[in-house]
Amino acid sequence: LEKMTDLVAVWEVALSDGVHKIEFEHGTTSGKRVVYVDGKEEIRKEWMFKLVGKETFTVGASKTKATINIDAVSGFAYEYTLEINGKSLKKYMENRSKTTNTWILTLGGTDYRVVLEKDTMDVWCNGQKMETAGEFVEDGTETHFSVGDYSCCIKAVSSGKRKEGIIHTLIVDDREIPEAVE
């Protein structure tokens, strides 16, 4: 494996199916452009005469659209920005924290990352979309699923405040799991 000598940028992108690593090589003398997602080469272009521009590819199980923008800053300096679904990475992650809940937990010595997509109520665990069963309960809803031998439940209850909306809580074997901040 050749060494990544032209590596100019590395980003970590948290999606429902996991945290993905995006690496970008830009040969400013050869014009080479290489994009890796989770260590796998997605795009390779050798000898590009135009040193600025963009590369678009997909990330993760849901094939989320990602674009690397290459802009000249001054002389031979370049700036690399990553967009996810047409938004800057920062904006995308801020919006994502409003549309998803994430919990990181260890069960029986194994680490799990559970993600709830609030708009669809889809639940993901370590990159797999989970089979769930939803039910209405007295104070809201419960979404049940299993992780290994553990029964899990995401409770959705109204906060009673319009600005806060619905509060989602993950409960595993009667234990409340604190939400993770990514």
UniProtKB/TrEMBL annotation:
UniProt-listed Pfam families: FAIM1 (PF06905)
Gene3D superfamilies: 2.40.128.180
Keyword entries, A-Z: Apoptosis, Cytoplasm
Compartment annotation: Cytoplasm
InterPro entries: FAIM1, FAIM1_dom_sf
GO cellular component entries: cytoplasm
Organism superkingdom: Eukaryota
One of the GO biological process terms: apoptotic process
Function: Plays a role as an inducible effector molecule that mediates Fas resistance produced by surface Ig engagement in B cells.
Family indicated by similarity: Belongs to the FAIM1 family.
Protein name in UniProt: Fas apoptotic inhibitory molecule 1
Lineage, top ranks: Eukaryota, Metazoa, Chordata, Craniata, Vertebrata
